[in-house]
Amino acid sequence: MSVPEPGKQQHPAPRRRPHRQGARERIGAAVAARLGSYGRRSLGWRLGAPLVFVLAGALFVTSAVSSGGTDLRAGRYDDLPGLVSAEARQVKQLRLRQEDLSGQVDQLTTALGDTRASAAEAEAAEVAQEAGTQAVHGPGVTVTLTDAPAESLGRVAEDEVNNLVVHEGDIQAVVNALWDGGAEAMTIQGQRIVSTTGIKCVGNAVIVNDVPYAPPYVISAIGPAGDMLTSLNQSPYIGFYLEAVVDYDLGWDVQVEDDITAPEFTGSTELSYARPAGDAGAATSNDDGT
Protein backbone atom coordinates (compact mmCIF):
# COMPACT_ATOMS: atom_id res chain seq x y z
CA MET A 1 0.00 0.00 0.00
CA SER A 2 1.47 3.39 -0.91
CA VAL A 3 1.66 6.22 1.61
CA PRO A 4 0.31 9.54 0.42
CA GLU A 5 2.60 12.44 0.30
CA PRO A 6 2.13 15.06 2.97
CA GLY A 7 -0.33 17.83 2.05
CA LYS A 8 -2.02 15.79 -0.71
CA GLN A 9 -5.42 14.10 -0.45
CA GLN A 10 -5.63 10.72 -2.06
CA HIS A 11 -8.76 10.12 -4.14
CA PRO A 12 -10.22 6.67 -4.34
CA ALA A 13 -9.88 4.83 -7.67
CA PRO A 14 -12.92 5.29 -9.97
CA ARG A 15 -15.39 2.42 -9.87
CA ARG A 16 -17.32 0.99 -12.87
CA ARG A 17 -20.97 1.66 -13.04
CA PRO A 18 -22.53 -1.80 -12.92
CA HIS A 19 -26.03 -0.66 -13.98
CA ARG A 20 -24.80 0.77 -17.31
CA GLN A 21 -22.66 -2.25 -18.01
CA GLY A 22 -25.67 -4.51 -17.35
CA ALA A 23 -27.85 -2.52 -19.76
CA ARG A 24 -25.30 -2.88 -22.56
CA GLU A 25 -25.09 -6.61 -21.93
CA ARG A 26 -28.89 -6.93 -21.96
CA ILE A 27 -29.17 -4.99 -25.21
CA GLY A 28 -26.47 -7.15 -26.79
CA ALA A 29 -28.20 -10.32 -25.67
CA ALA A 30 -31.57 -9.09 -26.99
CA VAL A 31 -30.09 -8.21 -30.39
CA ALA A 32 -28.36 -11.60 -30.58
CA ALA A 33 -31.61 -13.37 -29.67
CA ARG A 34 -33.57 -11.37 -32.27
CA LEU A 35 -31.04 -12.15 -34.96
CA GLY A 36 -31.13 -15.84 -34.06
CA SER A 37 -34.94 -15.90 -34.14
CA TYR A 38 -35.00 -14.08 -37.47
CA GLY A 39 -32.54 -16.58 -38.87
CA ARG A 40 -34.68 -19.47 -37.73
CA ARG A 41 -37.86 -17.91 -39.20
CA SER A 42 -36.11 -17.08 -42.46
CA LEU A 43 -34.93 -20.65 -42.72
CA GLY A 44 -38.47 -21.91 -42.06
CA TRP A 45 -39.95 -19.66 -44.77
CA ARG A 46 -37.24 -20.64 -47.22
CA LEU A 47 -38.06 -24.31 -46.67
CA GLY A 48 -41.85 -23.98 -46.31
CA ALA A 49 -42.70 -21.69 -49.23
CA PRO A 50 -41.45 -24.05 -51.98
CA LEU A 51 -43.28 -26.93 -50.30
CA VAL A 52 -46.57 -24.99 -50.37
CA PHE A 53 -46.12 -24.19 -54.07
CA VAL A 54 -45.36 -27.82 -54.86
CA LEU A 55 -48.50 -29.01 -53.04
CA ALA A 56 -50.66 -26.39 -54.80
CA GLY A 57 -49.28 -27.43 -58.18
CA ALA A 58 -50.02 -31.08 -57.40
CA LEU A 59 -53.62 -30.18 -56.55
CA PHE A 60 -54.05 -28.26 -59.83
CA VAL A 61 -52.65 -31.16 -61.86
CA THR A 62 -54.88 -33.67 -60.04
CA SER A 63 -57.99 -31.54 -60.70
CA ALA A 64 -57.12 -31.18 -64.38
CA VAL A 65 -56.58 -34.92 -64.81
CA SER A 66 -59.76 -35.80 -62.90
CA SER A 67 -61.96 -33.38 -64.84
CA GLY A 68 -60.80 -34.56 -68.26
CA GLY A 69 -61.55 -31.14 -69.66
CA THR A 70 -65.05 -30.97 -68.13
CA ASP A 71 -66.61 -28.98 -65.31
CA LEU A 72 -66.02 -30.70 -61.95
CA ARG A 73 -69.02 -28.88 -60.49
CA ALA A 74 -71.76 -31.15 -61.79
CA GLY A 75 -75.22 -29.79 -62.45
CA ARG A 76 -74.13 -26.32 -63.63
CA TYR A 77 -75.31 -26.63 -67.19
CA ASP A 78 -77.36 -23.72 -68.42
CA ASP A 79 -77.70 -25.02 -71.98
CA LEU A 80 -79.87 -28.11 -71.43
CA PRO A 81 -80.86 -28.46 -75.12
CA GLY A 82 -77.16 -28.41 -76.05
CA LEU A 83 -76.43 -31.08 -73.45
CA VAL A 84 -79.30 -33.22 -74.76
CA SER A 85 -78.02 -32.84 -78.33
CA ALA A 86 -74.53 -33.89 -77.26
CA GLU A 87 -75.91 -37.00 -75.56
CA ALA A 88 -78.02 -37.79 -78.63
CA ARG A 89 -74.95 -37.56 -80.87
CA GLN A 90 -73.06 -39.92 -78.59
CA VAL A 91 -75.91 -42.45 -78.66
CA LYS A 92 -76.08 -42.12 -82.44
CA GLN A 93 -72.38 -42.97 -82.71
CA LEU A 94 -72.92 -46.03 -80.54
CA ARG A 95 -75.83 -47.10 -82.73
CA LEU A 96 -73.70 -46.75 -85.84
CA ARG A 97 -71.11 -48.95 -84.16
CA GLN A 98 -73.83 -51.46 -83.35
CA GLU A 99 -75.01 -51.45 -86.97
CA ASP A 100 -71.46 -52.09 -88.14
CA LEU A 101 -71.07 -55.03 -85.77
CA SER A 102 -74.47 -56.42 -86.78
CA GLY A 103 -73.42 -56.22 -90.43
CA GLN A 104 -70.27 -58.16 -89.63
CA VAL A 105 -72.35 -60.84 -87.88
CA ASP A 106 -74.65 -61.08 -90.90
CA GLN A 107 -71.66 -61.48 -93.22
CA LEU A 108 -70.21 -64.23 -91.06
CA THR A 109 -73.58 -65.97 -90.86
CA THR A 110 -73.94 -65.86 -94.65
CA ALA A 111 -70.41 -67.17 -95.10
CA LEU A 112 -71.19 -70.14 -92.85
CA GLY A 113 -74.05 -71.19 -95.09
CA ASP A 114 -75.98 -72.70 -92.18
CA THR A 115 -79.38 -73.88 -93.45
CA ARG A 116 -80.99 -73.14 -90.08
CA ALA A 117 -79.68 -69.58 -90.18
CA SER A 118 -80.98 -69.16 -93.73
CA ALA A 119 -84.41 -70.38 -92.69
CA ALA A 120 -84.45 -67.96 -89.75
CA GLU A 121 -83.46 -65.07 -92.02
CA ALA A 122 -86.25 -65.92 -94.45
CA GLU A 123 -88.77 -65.99 -91.62
CA ALA A 124 -87.49 -62.68 -90.27
CA ALA A 125 -87.75 -61.08 -93.72
CA GLU A 126 -91.47 -61.95 -93.84
CA VAL A 127 -92.23 -59.98 -90.69
CA ALA A 128 -89.55 -57.29 -91.09
CA GLN A 129 -91.96 -54.57 -92.15
CA GLU A 130 -94.39 -55.19 -89.28
CA ALA A 131 -91.53 -55.47 -86.81
CA GLY A 132 -89.99 -52.21 -87.99
CA THR A 133 -86.68 -53.74 -89.05
CA GLN A 134 -87.18 -52.77 -92.69
CA ALA A 135 -87.21 -49.20 -94.05
CA VAL A 136 -90.50 -48.14 -95.64
CA HIS A 137 -91.98 -45.01 -97.19
CA GLY A 138 -95.37 -43.71 -98.27
CA PRO A 139 -97.97 -40.96 -97.71
CA GLY A 140 -99.02 -39.97 -94.24
CA VAL A 141 -99.30 -37.30 -91.56
CA THR A 142 -96.71 -35.37 -89.54
CA VAL A 143 -97.60 -33.83 -86.16
CA THR A 144 -95.25 -31.38 -84.39
CA LEU A 145 -95.51 -30.54 -80.68
CA THR A 146 -93.61 -27.58 -79.19
CA ASP A 147 -93.14 -26.06 -75.74
CA ALA A 148 -94.66 -22.66 -75.06
CA PRO A 149 -92.41 -19.66 -75.88
CA ALA A 150 -90.21 -18.29 -73.11
CA GLU A 151 -92.25 -15.11 -72.74
CA SER A 152 -95.23 -17.21 -71.61
CA LEU A 153 -93.40 -17.92 -68.36
CA GLY A 154 -94.16 -14.46 -67.02
CA ARG A 155 -97.89 -14.79 -67.70
CA VAL A 156 -98.65 -17.87 -65.58
CA ALA A 157 -98.68 -18.63 -61.89
CA GLU A 158 -95.85 -20.60 -60.35
CA ASP A 159 -97.99 -23.73 -59.97
CA GLU A 160 -98.87 -23.62 -63.71
CA VAL A 161 -95.34 -23.61 -65.11
CA ASN A 162 -95.56 -27.34 -65.76
CA ASN A 163 -98.31 -26.64 -68.30
CA LEU A 164 -95.88 -24.77 -70.56
CA VAL A 165 -93.95 -27.86 -71.71
CA VAL A 166 -94.76 -30.94 -73.77
CA HIS A 167 -94.90 -34.13 -71.70
CA GLU A 168 -94.47 -37.78 -72.60
CA GLY A 169 -98.24 -38.25 -72.18
CA ASP A 170 -98.89 -35.69 -74.93
CA ILE A 171 -96.55 -37.49 -77.32
CA GLN A 172 -98.03 -40.88 -76.39
CA ALA A 173 -101.54 -39.55 -77.03
CA VAL A 174 -100.57 -38.52 -80.57
CA VAL A 175 -98.87 -41.87 -81.21
CA ASN A 176 -101.91 -43.84 -79.99
CA ALA A 177 -104.32 -41.75 -82.06
CA LEU A 178 -102.25 -42.28 -85.21
CA TRP A 179 -102.11 -46.05 -84.61
CA ASP A 180 -105.88 -46.06 -84.07
CA GLY A 181 -106.24 -44.19 -87.38
CA GLY A 182 -104.49 -46.99 -89.29
CA ALA A 183 -100.83 -45.97 -89.22
CA GLU A 184 -98.58 -48.70 -90.66
CA ALA A 185 -95.21 -47.24 -89.67
CA MET A 186 -94.22 -44.36 -87.42
CA THR A 187 -91.22 -42.30 -86.33
CA ILE A 188 -90.50 -39.85 -83.52
CA GLN A 189 -87.61 -37.49 -84.21
CA GLY A 190 -86.76 -39.79 -87.12
CA GLN A 191 -86.52 -42.87 -84.85
CA ARG A 192 -88.60 -45.87 -85.93
CA ILE A 193 -91.26 -46.80 -83.39
CA VAL A 194 -91.59 -50.52 -82.63
CA SER A 195 -93.36 -52.63 -80.03
CA THR A 196 -90.55 -52.21 -77.49
CA THR A 197 -90.18 -48.43 -77.90
CA GLY A 198 -90.48 -46.51 -74.68
CA ILE A 199 -91.36 -42.81 -74.40
CA LYS A 200 -90.50 -41.07 -71.13
CA CYS A 201 -89.62 -37.64 -69.77
CA VAL A 202 -86.35 -36.90 -67.99
CA GLY A 203 -86.15 -33.26 -66.98
CA ASN A 204 -86.70 -31.07 -70.03
CA ALA A 205 -85.98 -33.88 -72.48
CA VAL A 206 -87.99 -36.80 -73.83
CA ILE A 207 -86.23 -40.13 -74.29
CA VAL A 208 -87.21 -42.31 -77.26
CA ASN A 209 -85.45 -45.63 -77.83
CA ASP A 210 -82.94 -44.62 -75.14
CA VAL A 211 -82.02 -41.40 -77.00
CA PRO A 212 -82.80 -38.01 -75.34
CA TYR A 213 -84.43 -35.31 -77.46
CA ALA A 214 -85.34 -31.66 -76.89
CA PRO A 215 -88.42 -30.02 -78.45
CA PRO A 216 -89.89 -29.60 -80.97
CA TYR A 217 -91.13 -33.21 -81.14
CA VAL A 218 -91.91 -34.40 -84.66
CA ILE A 219 -94.13 -37.48 -85.06
CA SER A 220 -94.58 -38.87 -88.56
CA ALA A 221 -96.90 -41.75 -89.49
CA ILE A 222 -97.31 -43.59 -92.80
CA GLY A 223 -100.89 -44.62 -93.54
CA PRO A 224 -104.32 -43.30 -94.57
CA ALA A 225 -104.11 -39.57 -93.91
CA GLY A 226 -107.89 -39.02 -93.70
CA ASP A 227 -108.45 -41.74 -91.12
CA MET A 228 -105.49 -40.63 -89.03
CA LEU A 229 -106.70 -37.01 -89.01
CA THR A 230 -110.14 -38.16 -87.92
CA SER A 231 -108.61 -40.20 -85.12
CA LEU A 232 -106.59 -37.19 -83.94
CA ASN A 233 -109.70 -35.00 -83.88
CA GLN A 234 -111.74 -37.59 -81.96
CA SER A 235 -109.13 -38.39 -79.29
CA PRO A 236 -110.14 -36.91 -75.90
CA TYR A 237 -106.47 -36.79 -74.87
CA ILE A 238 -105.62 -34.72 -77.93
CA GLY A 239 -108.56 -32.50 -76.95
CA PHE A 240 -106.94 -31.81 -73.58
CA TYR A 241 -103.69 -30.89 -75.32
CA LEU A 242 -105.48 -28.53 -77.73
CA GLU A 243 -107.01 -26.74 -74.74
CA ALA A 244 -103.47 -26.20 -73.43
CA VAL A 245 -102.51 -24.88 -76.88
CA VAL A 246 -105.12 -22.14 -76.43
CA ASP A 247 -104.48 -21.46 -72.74
CA TYR A 248 -100.68 -21.75 -72.58
CA ASP A 249 -99.44 -21.24 -76.17
CA LEU A 250 -98.15 -24.79 -76.63
CA GLY A 251 -97.20 -25.61 -80.21
CA TRP A 252 -99.43 -27.81 -82.42
CA ASP A 253 -98.96 -28.35 -86.14
CA VAL A 254 -100.40 -31.05 -88.45
CA GLN A 255 -99.23 -31.59 -92.01
CA VAL A 256 -100.37 -34.11 -94.64
CA GLU A 257 -97.30 -35.50 -96.42
CA ASP A 258 -97.09 -37.07 -99.89
CA ASP A 259 -94.11 -39.22 -98.97
CA ILE A 260 -92.66 -40.03 -95.55
CA THR A 261 -89.64 -42.27 -95.02
CA ALA A 262 -89.47 -44.44 -91.91
CA PRO A 263 -85.97 -45.93 -91.51
CA GLU A 264 -85.44 -49.40 -90.15
CA PHE A 265 -85.17 -49.87 -86.42
CA THR A 266 -81.52 -50.49 -85.55
CA GLY A 267 -81.78 -51.04 -81.81
CA SER A 268 -81.95 -54.29 -79.93
CA THR A 269 -85.11 -56.39 -80.43
CA GLU A 270 -84.12 -59.16 -78.03
CA LEU A 271 -86.66 -59.97 -75.33
CA SER A 272 -85.43 -61.19 -71.95
CA TYR A 273 -88.67 -62.53 -70.47
CA ALA A 274 -91.48 -62.51 -73.04
CA ARG A 275 -92.03 -65.77 -74.93
CA PRO A 276 -94.74 -66.96 -77.35
CA ALA A 277 -97.71 -68.32 -75.41
CA GLY A 278 -97.31 -71.78 -76.94
CA ASP A 279 -93.55 -71.91 -76.34
CA ALA A 280 -92.49 -74.51 -73.80
CA GLY A 281 -89.80 -72.10 -72.64
CA ALA A 282 -92.48 -69.74 -71.34
CA ALA A 283 -92.78 -71.84 -68.21
CA THR A 284 -89.08 -71.68 -67.39
CA SER A 285 -87.97 -69.83 -64.29
CA ASN A 286 -86.45 -66.36 -64.33
CA ASP A 287 -83.01 -65.50 -63.09
CA ASP A 288 -84.37 -64.95 -59.58
CA GLY A 289 -85.74 -68.50 -59.46
CA THR A 290 -89.43 -67.56 -59.62
TrEMBL record:
Keyword Transmembrane: yes
Transmembrane regions listed in the UniProt entry: 43-65
InterPro entries from the UniProt entry: DUF881
GO CC terms, sorted: plasma membrane
Region (Disordered) location: 1-24
Pfam families according to UniProt: DUF881
Record flagged with keyword Membrane: yes
Annotated keywords: Membrane, Transmembrane, Transmembrane helix
Similarity annotation: Belongs to the UPF0749 family.
Name of the molecule in the record: DUF881 domain-containing protein
Originating species: Nocardioides mesophilus
